[in-house]
Amino acid sequence: MLRRKPTRLELKLDDIEEFESIRKDLETRKKQKEDVDVVGGSDGEGATGLSNDPKSREQMINERIGYKPQPKPSNRSSQFGNFEF
Questions:
Q1: What single-letter DSSP state applies at residue 52?
Q2: Which portions of the sequence form the region Disordered (predicted)?
Q3: Angle (CA) 63 66 70, round 5°
């Protein structure tokens, strides 16, 4: 493997300003989200997706990832079909 000299990175004033603006943007979004959660939580409807029922949580995850589980067959003939020998 060939060795090369490390690349020098320079931090410019424009980069710092861009970083600060993006950071402030994210902070304001986070505060807005927290405010919405607090307001929605007082109604009792804000946490509809956060129920403690594991079945509904599993269904929500399956819907989100696009998984549609098929029911398991109950007997061996349905697993292998009707084979006649």
A1: S
A2: 28-85
A3: 85
Q: How far apart are CA 57 and CA 63, in angstroms?
A: 10
What is the CB neighbour count within 10 angstroms for residue 39?
Answer: 10
How far apart, in Å, do the first and last CA atoms of the chain sit? 63
Q: Give the residue carrying structure tokens 């994210």.
A: 26
For 2-40, how does the pLDDT look when each residue is reduced to its tens digit (9 = 90+)? Answer: 888 989 989 999 999 999 999 999 999 999 888 877 766
**Neighbouring residues of 59: CB distance < 8 A, sequence distance ≥ 6:** none
Structure tokens at 58: 């599993």
Residues 6 or more apart from 57 whose CB is under 8 A from it? Answer: 51
Distance between CA atoms of residues 49 and 43, nearest Å: 14
